[in-house]
Design goal:
- About 25% of the residues are buried.
- The two termini are about 30 Å apart.
- The protein has two domains: about 100 residues, no CATH class; about 70 residues, Leucine-rich repeat, LRR (right-handed beta-alpha superhelix).
- It is mostly beta strands and about 190 residues long.
C-alpha cells in the first residue's frame, strides 16, 4: 500500500528490471522512471495507479521479451500497453491484450487485471450489502430484495434522476471492509452523516 516509491527513479541504483505488480500502490506513475538508463523491464499492473503511462516510458521499448512473440510484434501492442493497460480497460494480466470495459462497466486503474467494475447502482449496492454482512444489519429494509428499487433502501437517498447521492448506514451494525466498488457510484455525494 502507498504511492510509487520515487527513490526507485534514481539512475545511480542501476535498475534493469522493476516488478511492482500487485502491491496496492496508488497515485500516478512518475515520468522520472524514464531517467533509468538501464531499465529493460517494468511491470506495474495489478495496482491502483490512475492517469496514464507517461509517454516518455512508452518510447523506451520496455518489456521487449514480452512484446515480441515468435519474432513479430503483435497487432495492437505498443510501448504503453506493454507496461500496463490503460484506464477503462482490463486484461487477464494487466498488460496487452487490453479489453475495453464498455458502457456497463468501468475500471479507474492502469493495468487492471480481472474484471471491470459494474456501473449498475443496484449491483454495486448489493455488493456493499454482501461484503458488510448485510443480513446482520440492525435495519436492512429493502436491501437484498430483488423487486425493491435502490431509492427505497434504508439509508439511501437519491436525486431527481433516481441516482444514489447519499448512503447513511450509521449505527447499523455493518461488519467487514468497505468494498472498493463504492467508488463506482458516480453520483454519490455523502457517505454517512
Amino acid at each position: 500500500m502507498g504511492t510509487f516509491p520515487i527513490s526507485l527513479t534514481r539512475d545511480d541504483i542501476g535498475l534493469v528490471q522493476l516488478f511492482l505488480e500487485h502491491n496496492d500502490l496508488s497515485g500516478t506513475v512518475p515520468a522520472s522512471l524514464a531517467n533509468l538508463k538501464h531499465i529493460k523491464d517494468l511491470f506495474i499492473d495489478g495496482n491502483k495507479f490512475t492517469g496514464y503511462v507517461p509517454p516518455s516510458l512508452c518510447t523506451l521499448g520496455l518489456n521487449q521479451d514480452f512484446v515480441i512473440a515468435n519474432g513479430e510484434e503483435q497487432d495492437g501492442r505498443n510501448g504503453c500497453n506493454s507496461i500496463a493497460c490503460p484506464v477503462n480497460t482490463v486484461s487477464k494480466e494487466g498488460v496487452f491484450p487490453c479489453i475495453e470495459c464498455g458502457s456497463q462497466g468501468y475500471s479507474p486503474y492502469l493495468g487492471h487485471d480481472g474484471r471491470c467494475f459494474h456501473l449498475n447502482e443496484k449491483i454495486l449496492l448489493d455488493i456493499i450489502y454482501d461484503k458488510t454482512n448485510g443480513p446482520m444489519w440492525h435495519d436492512s429494509r429493502g436491501w437484498g430484495v430483488d423487486n425493491v428499487g435502490v431509492c427505497n433502501y434504508k439509508g439511501i437517498e437519491c436525486n431527481g434522476a433516481g441516482h444514489v447521492i447519499v448512503i447513511d448506514l450509521s449505527n447499523n451494525g455493518l461488519f467487514g471492509s468497505i468494498p472498493e466498488e463504492i467508488g463506482m457510484l458516480r453520483h454519490l455525494e455523502v457517505l454517512g452523516r
